[in-house]
Amino acid sequence: MDWGTLQGVLGGVNKYSTSIGKIWLTVLFIFRIMILVVAAERVWGDEQNDFVCNTLQPGCRNVCYDHFFPISHIRLWALQLIFVSTPALLVAMHVAYKRHERKRRFRNGEKIDLEELKNEKIHIRGPLWWTYASSIFFRIVFEAVFMYVFYYMYDGYQMPRLVKCSDWPCPNVVDCFVSRPTEKTTFTIFMLAVSGICMVLNLAELCYLVIKACMKDPRKTT
Amino acid sequence: MNWAGLYTVLSGVNRHSTAIGRIWLSVIFIFRIMVLVVAAESVWGDEKSAFTCNTQQPGCNSVCYDHFFPISHIRLWALQLILVTTPALLVAMHVAYQQHQEKKLLVLTGHADAKHMEEVKKHKMRISGSLWWTYVCSVVFRLLFEAVFMYIFYMLYPGYQMMRLVKCEAYPCPNTVDCFISRPTEKTIFTVFMLVTSSICIVLNMAELVYLVVRACARRSHHSSNPSSGKSSFYGHKHSSEYKQNEINQLLTEQDGSLKDMLRRNSGLQEKGDRCSAC
């Protein structure tokens, strides 16, 4: 089970999304997951091995690394991407449930065209609208939470070149050097920017849904 | 065979599961297996190479690592996930057996055309009769395995927290030696995450068990209070066991002795019919 399988699972959800939702999914897969896998993982690959401290004291390096990097950027991004893409499965489950209900009504004798049932385009209205809107809301919440967690854990989005560490067993204040800080800062800002774009797309999609729902109501009443 | 292969095998089971069962399967694959593969494995990747002891004594490093980590978290989680997902295969096997029996019945009643055979393969099995018991057993085993592994984790790594420092005095370490574990905070975060998802899965399994029991009781009370309507709906359902039993009885009286022998040899159908008449 890896990113490829997740893509397979979420690709099916694409069918029931709005156009903005489809753009969002493409941005997620190409500019975030793919960048994470082909580029970012290599940059952070040697993060602990090449974290060098100016001491020979055994254990000082481990302790200092753990103090300054409680959870690696790569893992945080992986968790963020998993959490952000999962609300789409709520929509998939709801659509599957709707289809199942229609099939049941068909079996109980109601006249429904089988062909229409198979190729039917699911319209986002009624309870499905609420499920879809909730999934977008959760996506926005998860994006925001993770952006805040990043900011809080790493005091901004910049990777320092040098950190000063005085945890036991380090004898005094020891200089420790982070490997590839500029490249890491570049990728952090890139992922942050794409995360921001995804949030904007989600907000736009939410507005679009709300406006579409409001526009439909006056038509119903007239 | 890797996690993707397991995913393919278990996706087939998904069709015959309850709604809660499908949610459980999604949680297992997305929040446990996927997190294990894309994140946790790289956290524990350098656990031995970055395990540093404050000594130059050869062998002390290896001995201390082995003393404090008899089996790595990653391997334990892999075993847990395999054992927890495998009971679902009991259900898959039972469904395959039922489908095989239905196909045989179609052949005997002369409806063995491609369309009917395809329908047997595609239609969703009702979780009733012996399949209900198989399904319930698989859920019970899942719960058992989850609980056992959570207990094993607790026994091996008390408190679910990864320490930064361990003190080791196993031979050949000269005295009590300080050993430092790599990335303890990140490991603690992932241990807690996997623990939480494991608990969510336990809750989902219990909910599924309760749902199955309540549904079975409701069905039984509905049938005992309305026996006639119950039977008519049963006969209306093409693949009900009473319907099958009737078909078999018809065949036994109409066909010749060789056919009777064939049916008696495949006594599974008859036994099932007897059992279900007691439901």
Task: Write up this protein.
Chain B: One gap junction consists of a cluster of closely packed pairs of transmembrane channels, the connexons, through which materials of low MW diffuse from one cell to a neighboring cell. Chain B: Belongs to the connexin family. Beta-type (group I) subfamily. Chain B: A connexon is composed of a hexamer of connexins. The complex is a heterodimer of chains A (222) and B (279). In chain A, strands 1-3-2 form a three-stranded antiparallel sheet, covered by helices on one side. The model of chain A has no long low-confidence stretch (mean pLDDT 86). With 222 residues, chain A is mainly α. Chain A is built from eight helices and three strands. Chain A has a domain at 18-49 and 76-157 and 184-214: de novo design (two linked rop proteins) (Up-down Bundle), CATH 1.20.1440. Residues 229-239 and 267-279 of chain B have low confidence and may be disordered. The A-B interface holds A 1-6, 9, 41, 48-49, 57-59, 61-63, 65-66, 69-72, 74-75, 78-79, 82, 86, 89, 93, 97, 169 and B 3-4, 6-7, 19, 22-23, 26, 29-31, 33-35, 37-39, 42-43, 46, 50, 52-55, 164-165, 178-186, 189-190.
Q: Which chain pair shows the most residues in contact?
A: A-B, 32 and 38 residues
CATH domain fold name of the domain at 3-45 and 76-162 and 186-221 in chain B: de novo design (two linked rop proteins)
CATH superfamily placement of the domain at 3-45 and 76-162 and 186-221 in chain B: Gap junction channel protein cysteine-rich domain
How much of the sequence of chain B is in beta strands?
under 5%
Q: Quick one: overall form of chain A?
A: elongated
DSSP summary, beta strand count of chain B: 3
- The Rg value of chain A, from CA coordinates, equals 24 Å
Number of helices of chain A: 8
Q: Got a strand count of chain A?
A: 3
Largest sheet of chain B: 3 strands, antiparallel
Biggest sheet strand order of chain A reads 1-3-2
Which structural class matches the secondary elements of chain B? mainly alpha
Percent of residues in helices of chain A: 55-70%
Show unreliable segments of chain A. Answer: none
CATH superfamily of the domain at 18-49 and 76-157 and 184-214 in chain A, by name, is: Gap junction channel protein cysteine-rich domain
InterPro entries (chain A): Connexin, Connexin_CCC, Connexin_CS, Connexin_N, Connexin_N_sf
GO molecular function, one term (chain A): gap junction channel activity
Domain Connexin cysteine-rich (chain A): 142-209
Protein name (chain A): Gap junction protein
